[in-house]
Amino acid sequence: MADGRADGLAQLPVADRSGHRRTPGPDPVVNVTAGVTPSRREQLLRRALWLAMFTVAWNLAEGAIALTAAALAGSKALIGFGVDSFVESTSAAVLVWRLRVEQVDPERAERAERWALRLIGIAFFALALLVGVESIRALIGGVRPDTSIVGIVLTTVSLVVMPVLARAKRRVGVELGTRSITADSQQTMACVYLSAIVLVGLSLNALFGWWWADPLAALLVVAFLVHEGREALEAEHVDDCCG
Fold first, then answer.
1. Can you give the pTM of this predicted structure?
2. DSSP for residue 36
3. C-alpha to C-alpha distance for 66 and 79, rounded to whole angstroms
4. In CATH, which superfamily holds the domain spanning 38-242?
5. Which of 37, 164, 174, 191 is deepest in the core (most CB within 10 A)?
């Protein structure tokens, strides 16, 4: 009886500040699941979409410059870096697609996110394979790349821009509770590590003539890429089981 009276009292109308009476209940403005208001969620979705489109444009330009510099210098590490940029563009394009689905049909967003996580995970593995193969081929073949000032400048700029972009993506992904955005931010951080490794390799080759430094250093990032790809695919399978 006490519980019944409590339930009944909980539904009695109460007066708000204007004197009007209303039945208590969840605030219709607050998105209880996401923990943000609908207007804030829409703002975050627009920001995430802008970040993803910027990533596509940046990496397409970066990849074209890197591959051109690689052809001129004969650098296998720069080839891997350029291919990385195009894989990053694919990942960002997948995220753009997912966010478009979220804006047009929120009911399909969860299913789209599972597909996005799956494709991002595959992109990680593809990137790891490409970087690993190119690095091993360069080491075995004893290919001596020329000094690439363009490559050194490009990777230095990437070291400045990519961490900022990755942090911005992660903040949006965490606030939205969207794993595909946070997974994409991790892939952007992979680009940061790859940039640092390629920069070290290019610099050692330019300063000391250590031709083997850039393909050897590039192998260090492969383990990280495989780990992040596995995490993205595991998150996608968790959603399949629990969704």
1. 0.70
2. B
3. 7
4. Cation efflux protein transmembrane domain (1.20.1510.10)
5. 191
